[in-house]
TrEMBL record:
Its cofactor is Mg(2+). This is fructose-bisphosphatase. GO terms for cellular component: cytosol. Pfam families: FBPase, FBPase_C. It catalyses: beta-D-fructose 1,6-bisphosphate + H2O = beta-D-fructose 6-phosphate + phosphate. Belongs to the FBPase class 1 family. It comes from Triparma laevis f. longispina. Pathway: Carbohydrate biosynthesis. The lineage of its organism: Eukaryota, Sar, Stramenopiles, Ochrophyta, Bolidophyceae. Its EC number is 3.1.3.11.
């Protein structure tokens, strides 16, 4: 696709997308979705940057019987219980806020019939848009454990085509707007969310760090493209017109605190590359932020390999398949990189069984991922 001409920093996201749509009208709905996601990310960026000022750091609390934060009615200083999400994680205030911002932005596009979020127990069916072409999955605030230390966080999103419109309309006539696993009709409706990453129509992330950068791809012949938020303009401007991952890197990015729990094959691989005994004969340095968005963004730009391998205590690792592993693997592969599970399979071929299912995940430079695969023992 031809990118609008002119110095990069004058090409806003809006101008880029409208130039795409003028050459391919079928992208009209996707343009609306991307603009609403970008608007939500601008809002989340402001919330993250001002978290300390607005007392929005710390945990979301769930005072029994009263709204969180108000005086509980059964005696002073009742310990507020941290609110947990369906994954059993203590929710941060900003997890909940970011989720609300993104959910509303997507709902009000009127272009999405179904949403799944890390912070929503169940998928959300949107009555007003049941016959929409797309569904969306998202991690509203990734790396939220870093928020109180002002270390980089992000938002991850994926957009899938929805081929279950008629079933959704049938479901709408008979049910409320919550999609429950056990209800027969909605299992089909849920299918639109439970697609392998290879089916993504778009995926991307927004990183909230020293700058706010929106990176996404529409797949197919489209590049991986990056826009940086210009705070003076309040606009995302084009800064990375065609992101390609280096074929080989010299960074590995994994939580070595779990290495005593890893499979021997993975310990062996990391040991080799850190000693300069891998294929490139270079000694690899360790870089690990603890926010997938930050670690993947650096890997995308500098090369190397990122992994959340799983271990004897967490066979499927920590990352969730549909709104962390799939969108990030889709994007890195579109940028010429590679990705695989700890069994050496393609992440993009893993068919999800539930919206919060976890998966092991490695991604990064194609030659680094291919070298890792020579160590992995398929299950
Ligand atoms: P989230 O904050 O959305 O729950 O995701 C956190 C994830 C991911 O961002 C990061 O790569 C990983 O957790 C880090 O896990 P460990 O701290 O176990 O390494
Ligand atoms: Mn979380
Ligand atoms: Mn996450
Ligand atoms: Mn999250």
């Amino acid at each position: 696709p031809t990118v609008a001409q002119g110095p990069l920093s004058t090409i806003t996201l809006q101008r880029y997308l409208s130039s795409l749509v003028s050459s391919d009208e079928s992208l009209r709905e996707m343009e609306g979705l991307m603009l609403s996601i970008a608007m939500a990310c601008k809002t989340i960026s402001t919330l993250v940057n001002r978290a300390g000022i607005n007392q929005l750091t710390g945990l979301e609390t769930d005072v029994m019987g009263t709204r969180s934060g108000s005086q509980s009615n059964n005696g002073p200083n009742k310990k507020n219980k941290p609110k947990k999400n369906i994954q059993g994680e203590d929710q941060k205030k900003l997890d909940v806020l970011s989720n609300g911002v993104l959910k509303n932005a997507l709902k009000f596009t009127g272009k999405l019939g179904l949403l799944a979020s890390e912070e929503e127990d169940e998928a959300l069916l949107i009555e007003s848009a049941l016959d929409s072409r797309y569904v969306a999955v998202f991690d509203p605030l990734d790396g939220s454990s870093n928020i109180d230390a002002s270390i980089c966080t992000g938002t991850i999103f994926g957009v899938l085509e929805d081929d279950s419109v008629d079933i959704k309309n049938e479901y709408k006539r008979n049910n409320d707007d919550c999609v429950r696993d056990e209800d027969a009709e909605c299992v089909n409706t849920m299918d639109a969310l439970l697609q392998p990453g290879s089916q993504l129509a778009a995926s991307g992330y927004c990183m909230y760090s020293s700058s706010t950068i929106l990176v996404f791809t529409l797949g197919g012949s489209h590049p991986v493209i990056g826009f940086t938020l210009d705070p003076q303009l309040g606009e995302f401007v084009l800064t990375h017109p065609n992101m390609r991952t280096p074929k080989r890197g010299s960074y590995y990015s994994v939580n070595e605190g779990n290495s005593w729990l890893w499979d021997a094959s993975i310990r062996h691989y990391i040991d080799k590359i850190k000693r300069g005994e891998g294929q490139s004969k270079k000694r690899y340095s360790s870089r690990y932020v603890g926010s997938m968005v930050g670690d993947v963004h650096r890997t995308l730009l500098y090369g190397g390999i990122f992994g959340n391998p799983g271990d004897v205590q967490h066979r499927n690792g920590k990352l969730r398949l549909i709104y962390e592993c799939s969108p990030m693997s889709f994007l890195v592969e579109q940028a010429g990189g590679g990705s695989c599970t700890s069994e050496g399979k393609s992440v993009l071929e893993v068919v999800p069984e539930g919206v919060h299912q976890r998966s092991t995940c490695w991604l990064g430079s194609i030659e680094d991922v291919e070298e890792l695969k020579t160590y992995l023992v398929p299950e």
